[in-house]
Amino acid sequence: MVQSSIIPNISVDCVIFAYDKGLLKVLVRKEFIPTAKGVELRYKLPGNHMLFNERMEDTASRTLLEQTGARDIFMSQFSVFSDLDRLMRNADEYSWIKNNGLIHERVVTIGFYSLIKLNQPKKIKLIDRAEWKNVDEAFDLIFDHKDILNAALKQLRIDMLLHPIIFELLPQKFTLGQLQHLFEIILDQKFDKRNFRRKISGMKFLVATEEWQEGVAHKPAQLYRFDKRLYNKHKKENFEFII
Amino acid sequence: MVQSSIIPNISVDCVIFAYDKGLLKVLVRKEFIPTAKGVELRYKLPGNHMLFNERMEDTASRTLLEQTGARDIFMSQFSVFSDLDRLMRNADEYSWIKNNGLIHERVVTIGFYSLIKLNQPKKIKLIDRAEWKNVDEAFDLIFDHKDILNAALKQLRIDMLLHPIIFELLPQKFTLGQLQHLFEIILDQKFDKRNFRRKISGMKFLVATEEWQEGVAHKPAQLYRFDKRLYNKHKKENFEFII
DNA sequence: TCAAAAGTGTTAGAGGTACACCCATGA
DNA sequence: TCATGGGTGTACCTCTAACACTTTTGA
Q1: Does residue B239 surpass a pLDDT of 70?
Q2: Touching B: A residues 124-163, CB under 8 Å
């Protein structure tokens, strides 16, 4: 891809969430920023400038593919960030990215958030310098990327109550305990186990498989899966997901 | 403002809603497009290219001010439109806007929707060629503006259930009948009058004034107002609006 | 045998839904 | 006096919230 095909004033930034070992993770890229005090390690969200022959969704897919090696990842455009000083809040960060030659003084960025299954079925291969960070430990992000992350989380919290997107973070087959726990960590709110399961069991599109957990030091849980077809049938009547 | 300060690839389009005589209106601009068959009357949403020294909200405010003469109008950024052919789906429309000299081949537009009080308290003065159209009669919009309008409506329907924004469309003092009717026409759904009023009366931030409707050919209704302070107090406990 | 999560019912209260009549006003 | 929307109460039912114990497994 040639340099000239880049739209200089528009970029797409991706907030890629994953659920791993009971924690909500976000994908960040390590960057080493030279400052007066020496080289500082900072993080940024993955992103790219939009190309002239791309829709914003294409730029987002390209970024996801580039960072994780995965295609067909769930993504949702949630907000735009256009503050005049968004790249210039910190002089060191700005001169660093300016020196990388990729950037115009004024870049409006379109925020996408993505949900990705870490285990199955697609293999995830992070590129060099990309890493998963716990969402609540991702503070030292450059530019306005912390704002973007917070806005993504806020949108995710709304969307997950209205649409069945939470399953994008879980393996194909999961336990109700995992499902409940994932709700709890994203919403930062505890649910009563029995009430949660009663509500869930009213959802016809959550179907029990004949498989059980293995190798756990407690009573193994039955595995469930999300049935998209059943969901599409039922949502017409039920209007939406609504947990 | 000089031409050179325009960012050529980014625009903001505004879907401005209003409630008038029991109908939901949207502001459109008349455009006369020369075609092989003669001059055709088409409509477009108001919008502007972003300037280099503007945030997207500034571009939106500028557009609102320019079209209606009003400031401090409620607005909300809801989506971005970046399809490659979004300005070129129709050759006549494209050559018309290209001849107006304002446009680059590739423009990504940021969609805002606005809610505006037609009667009070600010005086609305539409500029030439702007007019209110019933939302369900706004079909012949150019470019992808019909898509933008539909997306705005969809977002409005979600937002109005979660946040107390519906009052932005009503006069400062309104009847419960108006409020219910406005819900009904936006959501395209009927509500039971008694149940609606019971629910409403649980909302402490909707306060009855000591004024009544005048000049109506039926029993005059009591006027209510939305109290933002009370809302801000109560929402902490109640989490949100949620109708 | 211990620790850890799975799995399961009941009750009380709150909130939702469905439904019909009289009232005040201007035309 | 008629048409129009305003204003009101009740009964049923569903959903929510709160709560504790037994089971199965690996370590």
Answers
A1: no
A2: 158, 162
pLDDT tens figures, A213-222: 999 999 999 9
Of B9, B57, B77, the CB nearest to A10: B9
Q: Is A240 on the interface with B (CB under 8 A)?
A: no
Is strand C less than 7 A from the beta carbon of B125? no
Per the CB < 8 Å rule, is B80 touching A83? no
Q: State, as a whole number of angstroms, the distance between the CA of B193 and the C1' of D13.
A: 20
Contacts of A56 (CB under 8 A, 6+ apart): A12, A50, A77, A110, A112, B80, B82, B108
The set of residues, in sequence order, having a beta carbon less than 8 Å from that of B54 and lying 6+ positions away, is A84, B62
Which residue type, as a one-letter code, is found at position B103? I
Chain B residues whose CB is inside 8 A of the A7 CB are 9, 106, 108
Cα radius of gyration (chain B): 20
Q: Decide if B79 and A82 are in contact by the 8 Å CB cutoff.
A: no
Task: Give the model confidence (pLDDT) of A108-129 as tens digits.
Answer: 999 999 999 997 656 788 888 9
Q: pLDDT by residue (tens digit) across A16-56?
A: 999 999 999 999 999 999 999 999 999 999 999 999 999 99
- Give the other-Cβ count within 10 Å of B51's Cβ: 18
- Give the residue from B78, B103, B101, B77 showing the smallest Cα distance to B88: B103
Nearest to A56 by CA among A82, A76, A41: A76
Q: Which helix (H) or strand (E) holds B97?
A: helix B91-99
